[in-house]
Design a protein that fits this description.
Shape: elongated
Helix content: 10-25%
Strand content: 15-25%
Number of helices: 7
Bound molecules: zinc ion
Radius of gyration: 21 Å
Number of domains: 2
Distance between the termini: 25 Å
Strand order of the largest sheet: 2-1-7-3-4
């Protein structure tokens, strides 16, 4: 239970990361963060929290302690947004594109998706967010080693860096139903996976 995750909001209630329940509890105990009740949005400090009754996620129990698992915490001071870059991986490109082929719009099984370099690498195209898109195997084969013009193909969405926070694992975002109301729709899309 201590290794499950809590959603972290900055003091403006913008989600900035996920953390382990263990760390969330430490932040609360040091009064760096308060726990947000996911139904009522009430913020409880440490003292109030340990006296609270249980809801959805169950309770943490041990020798000398017994209190509800914090699912969402809000930082008291920090109002920023940590600049952690989302790592450029095939998986993250698929997440950014909502697991959709950026040419035909189909969403086959994620194993049947690949990465297409919009400007082929053989023509100097970069291997990065601005030049890589998700493609199905058919479209990838059809485009082959050509640019868009030569292949007479169009992109549904021009590629750009993803906009979910680097400190947040999109796969975790779908983990807790109670988190959903705190997350912008575009981050939830990134969480759609197999
Ligand atoms: Zn396609």
């Amino acid at each position: 239970m201590l290794d499950s995750h809590a959603l972290v909001l900055n003091r403006s209630w913008v989600p900035i990361s996920t953390t382990t329940v263990r760390r969330a509890v430490l932040l609360m105990a040091r009064d760096v963060a308060g726990a947000v009740h996911p139904e009522t949005y009430e913020v409880a400090n440490w003292a109030a929290w340990v006296l609270r009754g249980s809801f959805q996620a169950g309770r943490l129990r041990g020798i000398g302690f017994d209190f509800p698992v914090p699912e969402v915490i809000v930082l008291r001071q920090y109002g920023g947004f940590p600049e952690i870059q989302v790592s450029f991986t095939r998986r993250n490109v698929h997440r950014r594109d909502g697991y959709r082929c950026m040419y035909c719009g189909k969403r086959p099984h994620p194993d049947l998706l690949t990465i297409d370099h919009v400007i082929p690498r053989s023509r100097g195209g970069a291997h990065g967010w601005g030049n890589c898109v998700t493609a199905c195997l058919d479209c990838n084969a059809r485009k082959a080693d050509r640019n868009l013009w030569d292949a007479r193909m169009n992109l549904l969405v021009p590629p750009s860096p993803p906009d979910w926070p680097g400190g947040m694992d999109p796969d975790l975002l779908s983990a807790r139903p109670t988190w959903q109301r705190f997350l912008p729709e575009r981050w939830r899309r990134a969480a759609v996976s197999s």
